[in-house]
TrEMBL record:
Residues 40-135 form the Polysaccharide export protein N-terminal domain. This is Polysaccharide biosynthesis/export family protein. Residues 139-218 form the SLBB domain. It is found in: Cell outer membrane. One of its GO terms (cellular component) is cell outer membrane. It comes from Flavobacterium agri. The keyword Membrane applies. Belongs to the BexD/CtrA/VexA family. Residues 1-20 form the signal peptide. GO terms for molecular function: polysaccharide transmembrane transporter activity; porin activity. The chain crosses the membrane at residues 234-253. One of its GO terms (biological process) is monoatomic ion transport. Keywords: Cell outer membrane, Ion transport, Lipoprotein, Membrane, Palmitate, Polysaccharide transport, Porin, Signal, Sugar transport, Transmembrane, Transmembrane beta strand, Transmembrane helix, Transport. Pfam families: Poly_export (PF02563), SLBB_2 (PF22461).
Length: 254
């Protein structure tokens, strides 16, 4: 009887030690000992293929009509919301074709820099203009071992890596938390960076705040990889069966 109790204890220990640990799952594990980080002053940089909404306002709305062309040419009525305003796609050279002014290079500028540049140009025609600029197609994509993979529009033009993962329903239990891939395009080149969200240091990296069109890829851990061809539970069953056979063999030989 004591021999069988020993077998069950050994079996329990083997299974327990083969399970995932907190180190594999918990986020920002050193948060209790981490130093207070400085909040980053993040602002998106405009890029080719960004779709912009640009609305010019002034004390006298009528003078802004030439700058606020409707999406479809025809009758245009000025109101408080200025619905149906034309949008502007930044071309491969970083330019937009803005009414009255002509080509304006906005690619490579931050949102604030772009607003200031347009304000200076429009000021030659309107006194004290106000520019409202927004990126309409600001989005990020999350793929791999998350609950709801897909692309997500970001209305606020500011999103962190953790927020993007949250929008995707968080990582599954099979996702690698210490090896998340962030694919980013800047100045016509793609970069591939690995981020470890089990460590708080990543909040100070350039990849804590995401840029428009960033792609986040969560890799599967070894358990998911091994079970991909035989089903998620088969590997566990085989492991347990192997352990039982090994223990039984030891008991019989003794």
């Amino acid at each position: 009887m004591l021999r069988f109790k020993g077998v069950f204890v050994l079996l329990f220990l083997v299974i327990a030690t083969s399970c995932a640990t907190r180190k594999d799952i918990a986020y920002m594990q050193d948060a209790d000992n981490a130093k207070q980080s400085q909040l980053q002053n993040y602002e998106p940089t405009l890029k080719p293929d960004d779709l912009l909404s640009i609305i010019v306002s002034a004390e006298t709305p009528e003078v802004t009509v030439p700058f606020n062309l409707p999406a479809i040419q025809g009758n245009y009525q000025v109101d408080n919301n200025q619905n149906g305003i034309k949008t502007y796609l930044i071309d491969n050279f970083g330019n937009i074709d803005f009414p009255v002014i002509g080509k304006v290079q906005l690619g490579g500028l931050t949102r604030t820099e772009a607003v200031n540049k347009l304000t200076r140009s429009v000021s030659e025609y309107i006194t004290n203009p106000s520019i409202n600029l927004r990126i309409l197609n600001y989005k990020v994509s999350v793929l791999g071992e998350v609950s709801k993979p897909g692309s997500f529009t970001v209305p606020s033009e500011r999103i962190t890596l953790l927020e993007a993962l949250s929008n995707a329903g968080d990582l599954t239990i099979y996702g690698k938390r210490n090896n998340i891939l962030v694919i980013r395009e800047a100045e016509g080149k793609k970069s591939f960076t690995r981020v470890d969200i089990t460590n708080t240091d990543f909040v100070n990296s350039p990849y804590y705040y995401l840029s428009q069109n960033d792609v986040i890829v969560v890799e599967p851990n070894n358990t998911r990889v091994k079970s991909s061809s035989v089903g998620p539970n088969t590997t566990l069953y085989i492991s347990v069966a192997s352990i039982l056979v090994t223990i039984a063999t030891i008991v019989i030989l003794r």
